[in-house]
tRNA-uridine aminocarboxypropyltransferase
Amino acid sequence: MSILIDGDSQFSPPNTRRRICNACERPATVCLCDSLPAEPLSTTTQIVILQHPHEQRHRLATVPVLNKCLRNCQTLIGRRLRLGDSALLDSLHDAASDQNPPRSIHAAFLFPGTDPTPSMEINRWISSFGDTNVNKFVLIVFDGTWKHAKEMVSASLPFMSNFATQVSLPYDVRVDGGTKFSSDLTLRKEPFGGCMSTMEAVARCLGILEPNGAEIESQLIQVIKVMAGFQASFLKPTNRKPKLKRSNDDEKRVNSRSFCT
């Protein structure tokens, strides 16, 4: 469920009339209907996305597409999470405040760890609960640029820190690549290697959280590949400049896989 549908058109000159697909609500030239699931996918994991207001106007935003792919997905627009934004999160917050958290529902927010606020790899987080067949998960995701996402997490911590654990996806530069051009799923220029779209981040998490995660992840990744293919087909060929090497201090700031929209 989403409270917003991205109405921005994509890959077309301004001030021209474009045919919009009524189903996927994208320009007909980049229609995704053939790639989207016939019905939104059901998951035991509840997903709550806080989307920065600037992202709702971005033509390459993946959250509107993700909402069409998943049934249990809620999108909130804002710069921070607080009491009253989501009935689901409110219930987890209130239960934790009463020191009576539900034993079978576990919440996490996805964000790379830093020295001041370390994160737990999502695989380790899940394994800490034992039999995952009796557990249900709530995944909180922040949709925005790297700068905005950091601000949103910091502003939301007073609300969610008592019921949600900070988790991250594993990232190995030897496997995932050290440049911002290494992924065929790239939709935007990334600040550094290992970044990914919000939709890809959710897909990777569901691949771990869900009993049939591999199938769900594969379907979502295929949609992103089609989007990236459309994007690449509209770009003029350019010589990619090598990425500047980051300092050791920069490397220490991010110890796990990151994401941006």
Remarks:
- The mean pLDDT is 79.
- The first helix runs from residue 63 to 69.
- The beta strands are 46-51, 73-77, 105-110, 120-121, 136-143, 164-168.
